[in-house]
Design a protein that fits this description.
Elements lengths: L1 H16 L3 H4 L4 H8 L2 H13 L15 H9 L9 H7 L6 H13 L2 H24 L5 H11 L8 E2 L4 E2 L3 H5 L4 H7 L2 H25 L18 H4 L3 H19 L4 H6 L2 H16 L13 H12 L6 H11 L6 H9 L4
Antiparallel strand pairs: 1-2
Helix pairs in contact: 1-7, 3-4, 3-12, 4-8, 5-8, 8-9, 8-12, 16-17
């Protein structure tokens, strides 16, 4: 079938082009800062993800998840099988199955991207519940804090911080002060149980929404309709990220600026130096400790320009910028550089 053929071609291109793609994702924690209005959340996400980068290779039989991984699992923001579905959407855009799916999943595990994205989701979940607590306590100003909660469908009285848990109460037993669901069912009033479940559902839905708005997770709603056509899959391949970044990060920057909050813009500016540093390390890792040939003799303006190209901040206009680079540079800096600009994700 056409889908199977394009699926196989997609996996081949992934393996050929993306062995070092985890370096391009090192700036992803900035998305958590942009959404939760906290630069500390980005630092927390980055350090946790680096520390736990190799956890996909641990033994499942003698391992216990830490507090925040267990919390993210309970909230449903990660898949404990180890496969984060957003990776497929970011890099593939095609539904894979059978052997191609198995190879693709294994590839993203071994190039460490799966573990990186999973850990980012764990910390985005932690940041989301903290964002709800801060908003409920009015820490962003009365008006903005109230709007933060309205946007995700919760009320200040829904948010209950628990010192013992070290986070907000997010399940019905926690809200009513019981150890587990069985104890709650046996001892609590049925009306209280129903109200607590509805409150917990609002909180969990709010956390899900904040996490989705923190991490790049392209969906058909964010992409043009032609990208869902299997016959155009070779063209759409590796381009979904641009549209996902536009919908998740750039639209958030505009939204926040319209209500007078410019902090996310300052945080997003970090994508440029972040990508410059990540690409420098990536170039050394992929070229035996030396700068790639096409980067030699670059000046500061070259590095900054490339950082802007790779930051994602130009949105879909980056397609036209890449075309202009090819024209003005006689086909690009080099074949390798052109391949990267056209095929790898923008950040």
């Amino acid at each position: 079938e056409v889908k199977d053929l394009y699926g196989a071609a997609t996996v081949y291109q992934n393996v050929r082009l993306l062995p070092l793609s985890v370096f391009s994702s090192l700036v992803d924690p900035l998305g958590v800062a942009v959404r939760t209005n906290s630069l500390g959340a980005a630092f927390d996400t980055f350090t946790y993800s680096i520390k736990n980068l190799f956890t996909d290779f641990r033994s499942k039989t003698n391992w216990t998840p830490d507090q925040w991984e267990q919390y993210a699992d309970d909230m449903g923001t990660i898949d404990m099988s180890g496969t984060v579905k957003s990776i497929d959407k970011i890099y593939t855009g095609v539904t894979l199955r059978g052997k191609t799916r198995e190879i693709n999943d294994g590839f993203f595990k071994w190039n460490l991207l799966n573990g990186w994205v999973k850990n980012n989701h764990i910390m985005a979940t932690k940041a989301a519940q903290l964002f709800l607590r801060r908003s409920a306590e009015g820490m962003f100003g009365e008006e903005m804090s109230a709007e933060n909660l309205r946007e995700v469908g919760v009320k200040p009285e829904d948010i209950m911080y628990d010192e013992a848990l070290g986070r907000i109460r997010s399940t019905a037993p926690e809200i009513l002060g019981y150890e587990n669901a069985e104890q709650m069912e046996q001892q609590a009033d049925p009306d209280d149980v129903q109200a607590a479940r509805e409150q917990a559902q609002r909180i969990q839905q709010a956390i899900h929404k904040i996490v989705r708005q923190s991490m790049i997770q392209p969906s058909s709603a964010e992409m043009p309709s032609w990208m869902s056509n299997p016959y155009l899959a070779p063209i759409a391949h590796l381009k979904t990220f641009v549209f996902g970044f536009n919908a998740t990060i750039l639209n958030r920057l505009v939204y926040e600026a319209q209500r007078g909050n410019y902090n996310p813009i300052y945080y997003a500016a970090g994508y440029i130096p972040g990508m410059m540093a990540a690409d420098f390390v990536k170039g050394l890792a992929g070229n035996g400790g030396e700068e790639p040939e096409w980067k030699k003799n670059w000046g500061l303006t070259d590095y900054v320009g490339y950082g802007v190209d790779r930051s994602g901040l130009t949105g879909t206009a980056q397609f036209f910028t890449d075309m202009n680079n090819d024209i003005t540079r006689g086909g690009g800096r080099s074949e390798e550089h052109t391949s990267e600009l056209q095929s790898l994700r923008t950040i």
